[in-house]
Design a protein that fits this description.
Number of helices: 15
Distance between the termini: 72 Å
Oligomer: single chain
CATH class of the largest domain: Alpha Beta
Mean pLDDT: 98
Strand order of the largest sheet: 15-16-17-14-13-19-20
Shape: globular
Structural class: alpha/beta
Bound molecules: nicotinamide-adenine-dinucleotide
Largest sheet: 7 strands, mixed
Strand content: 15-25%
Helix content: 40-55%
Low-confidence stretches: none
Number of domains: 2
CATH architecture of the largest domain: 3-Layer(aba) Sandwich
Radius of gyration: 23 Å
Length: 477
Amino acid sequence: MQTSALYLNGEWVTTSTTRPVLNPATGEVVGTMSVADRARVAQALDDAHAAYPAWRALPAKSRGQYLHRIADQLEQRTDEIARLITLENGKPMGQAKGEIAMSVDHLRWFAEEARRSYGRVVPHQVDGKRHLVLKSPIGVVGAISPWNFPLVLAVRKVAPALAAGCPVVLKPAAQTPLCAVAFAECVHAAGLPKGVFQLILAPAADVGAEFLANPKCRKITFTGSTEVGRLLIAGAAETVKPLSLELGGQAPVLVFDDADLARTVEGVIIAKFRNTGQSCIAANRIYVQAGIYDRFVAALVERVGQLKTGNGLEPGMDVGPLIDQAGLDKAVAHVRDAVAQGARLLAGGEALPGSGYFLPPTVLAEVPAHALCMQEETFAPVAAIAKFSTEAEGIALANGSIFGLSAYVFTENLDRALRVVEQLEAGTIGLNDGVPTTSNCPFGGVKQSGWGRELGSEGLDAFLETKHVSISLSSGL
Ligand code: NAD
């Protein structure tokens, strides 16, 4: 099997150290990836730094044209790259294609948004002065991305950084580097100058340490667990390194008595089971008001029975494998813990026999508040449901978490909808909507779900510094 290469300073580089890439649906090796060392990370930052002056000097429109060309490449290779995503991540092919479509949209959004990184002219307060507020690129960016959406979460960093005028060194997750290699091929084919985008895989702690310590790396943008986010925050104290952090979630869902049942079930199905539940915005705690509780639980269980679980390469699958044995073990442990504490298991709950890390869609009802699946991020196709009575109680339950990435509300009552969304502590809220993420609106968390926002105009701002220029005029006017 050919070893996949790193993309460093415009060259394809293979290394003597490699690691296998596994298919979580079968356990088979589907690729071999080059692995560099910390010194090579430092070299990549040097090369990015060298590429910086020319890249930032380009008109924003020209940088945008490069991004459009990368998007064209991705679009043309959709079927092939979707297959790669499914092979190394496990998600069903249809969802992998959706991930590519969203990546293309992110690239095109930031290609255009680059042209709108306006500064401003501020009216002067004193005769003889003028004031400009300029936006400048922050400099070389170190980006670290996770395995659960291996392409789109990398693009969510790379596209705005490049658009803003910042070279990027990307480290993908070790489990899913192959689609990052395909993305690097798209960048290469789009003709970006060398050093502007680089792809490196090296031991994660070494990459983090080098990004933190190296003064040429001016910003770290990270998506992953809150645990690693905390390590980066601690490390950044030394050099006051700016960080954008997209961390863990534990999304609550509030289903009110006045919700439209059919619409709510479809919304919860997608919010819970898309990406096999391995989404940072996956519905983790489903709180249902007493008056609709029994009907909702019955309808959800019936709908879950229609979902197909299996190898994502086979047509018609809705739910794929979990990423690895640890992910499967955690999910099964959460189910057993909930049942031991009195929850009713209404669907799924047991790992499928044979190869691969499959847990069929699982529904637990009357889950007590102290069960692990109500306290932690399960990151699996496990729908944990509990009953509540009043609106105030529902809001308190939803906000009772250290996380605040996303939340979902289902109600047909406009007054209630507005009251509730105003009080929920979350960065993204789906109101009767199971898929709330879009290129043109900000995405990110409050509380321990992170710092900063991706996407929207805020996504570009994350890679821009604000500079005030105060001008004293000799005429004194
Ligand atoms: P993880 O934190 O283990 O890994 C994420 C990335 O960080 C990987 O590339 C990994 O190699 C790297 N990493 C690991 N240790 C590091 C270190 N010491 N220094 C620097 N980098 C290091 O997370 P994961 O298990 O791969 O991903 C799942 C988590 O990511 C979940 O908690 C999920 O909620 C979160 N997530 C958040 C978002 C969001 O937008 N907020 C999106 C997707 C996933």
